[in-house]
Design brief:
The strands form two sheets. A five-stranded parallel β-sheet has the order 4-1-5-6-7, sandwiched between helices. Strands 2-3 form a two-stranded antiparallel sheet. The longest helix is centred in the last third of the chain and has 22 residues, at 314-335. It has helices at residues 26-40, 57-67, 80-92, 129-148, 155-159, 182-194, 198-211, 216-229, 234-245, 254-271, 274-290, 294-310, 314-335, 346-362, 367-377, 380-397; strands at residues 4-9, 14-16, 23-25, 43-47, 70-74, 97-102, 116-119. The chain folds into two domains: 4-159, 3-Layer(aba) Sandwich (Rossmann fold); 182-397, Alpha Horseshoe (Serine Threonine Protein Phosphatase 5, Tetratricopeptide repeat), CATH 1.25.40. The protein is α/β, with parallel strands linked by helices. 59% of the residues lie in helices and 8% in strands. It contains 16 helices and seven strands.
């Protein structure tokens, strides 16, 4: 193992940037850019969720910030934990801290004067190889420079020159224990979900949520898997999922609002309560207005058609149908330029299914091609979900099969 250590401060998994609306695969940034360059430059590189520690992860994180010879902080998606940890590093070390951020993000005032590596993350297809290479070169150059220079990069130590760095009283370096890291546990939970093993996914995400109650991602995934599990009954599962999401129902997160809308739609289909359908439309409209996401747009259009199908007033019915068609056109136009040669993430595969749905609804010739592409990339669980919704859509809009 290398003698020098590099601790990476950043989020994990796929996270959406609240400013640009882009969903970034932070694991791809870490494993394909940051970690390889740090190791190439002679560092043992690790991220907080890779720490094998049966104790409180915050303790290991603080030791990593204090002990590491180098800290690389990627604050893309404006992850509050990453920004806070960057601040802690600037408070305890005067040098050898590198800041990275995706170029669509807006800088905070207090970070405007900090030298930062910016990189481009395309909306579709993940990061292209040329952009990976460009970002790796930029990071390599900065690491090489700070290894051979004594420049201060902490604003605190730059502007207050008589400060001294803190020192620990002991040499305890919190070496990890032989247990699964957070990254491995999250990956395992997602794998259960993708395979349709919702029982194990619920167990895994419930443990993660209990350990990290402020991380909305784990609660959102727990509610999603609970709703998809449909046990002990569908109604019970949907009600339980909504109860889980109730404490964060006022959030402006489009994915959480979209999930609430999807569950309420299912409740309406189950019991015919118009209040559930209205709640579904309300939350989906909120989600779609926050970010023009393909999934929420497709779901909203379907619910508008569903509401139109039960109305007696011809004018109201026509108004909802026009709205639904306008939203589908918008979803199609916003996403039709997806690079089909670079589809590899679950999010991108679901996008293809949505393009198939809206294309069928709009009567576009390429609908079959989108469906064929989706089926070639999707898991069994994804296929089952797609065909279930396609059947409902065709029946609702009277599309010839």
């Amino acid at each position: 193992m290398a003698d020098k250590s590099c601790f990476v401060v950043m989020g994990y998994g796929q996270r959406r940037d609240p400013m640009s609306g882009k969903k970034l695969n932070l694991d791809k940034i870490y494993f394909e850019i940051i970690k390889p360059i740090a190791e190439e430059c002679g560092y043992y590189c690790f991220r907080g969720d890779e720490i094998h520690d049966s104790g409180i992860i915050d303790i290991s994180m603080y030791y990593g910030i204090l002990d590491a010879d180098l800290v690389i902080a990627d604050i893309s998606t404006l992850n509050p934990n990453a920004i806070y940890e960057l601040g802690v590093r600037h408070g305890v070390r005067k040098r050898k801290t590198i800041v990275m951020i995706e170029q669509s993000n807006k800088f905070f005032f207090d970070l405007n004067h900090v030298k930062t590596i910016t990189y481009k993350y395309p909306r579709f297809g993940g990061i292209r190889q040329s952009e990976i290479d460009q970002t790796k070169n930029a990071l390599r150059n900065v690491v090489t420079y700070i290894d051979s220079h004594e420049d201060k990069d902490s604003p605190l130590y730059t502007y207050i020159e008589d400060l001294s760095e803190p020192r620990k009283q002991s040499s305890d370096n919190r070496k990890g224990k032989n247990e699964k890291s957070l990254y491995e546990r999250v990956k395992e939970a997602i794998s259960y979900k993708n395979k349709g093993d919702f029982g194990m996914a619920i167990k895994s995400f419930n443990q993660l949520h209990n350990e990290y109650p402020t991380d909305m991602y784990f609660l959102q995934q727990l509610a999603l898997c609970t709703y998809k599990h449909k046990l002990p009954t569908e109604k019970d599962a949907y009600s339980s999922a909504l109860m889980m999401l109730a404490p964060i129902a006022d959030t402006i997160d489009p994915e959480i609002n979209g999930l609430i809308g999807a569950i309420c739609k299912r409740l309406y289909e189950l019991n015919g309560n118009i209040a559930d359908l209205d709640k579904s439309i309300e939350t989906l409209e909120k989600a779609y207005s926050l970010f023009k996401g393909y999934y929420n747009g497709d779901n909203l259009a379907y619910c508008l058609n569903l509401k139109a199908s039960i109305l007696e007033d011809a004018e109201e019915k026509e108004e909802l149908e026009v709205m639904a068609r306008r939203i589908r056109k918008e979803v199609y136009e916003n996403n039709k330029n997806i690079n089909i040669d670079e589809i590899d993430s679950e999010d991108e595969i679901w996008l293809v299914s949505t393009l198939a749905n809206v294309s069928y609804a709009l009567g576009k010739d390429e609908a079959d091609e989108y469906e064929k592409l989706f089926l070639s990339k999707s898991s069994r669980f994804m296929k089952e979900s797609y065909f279930e919704q396609k059947e409902k859509l065709f029946n609702l809009l009277h599309i010839q099969k």
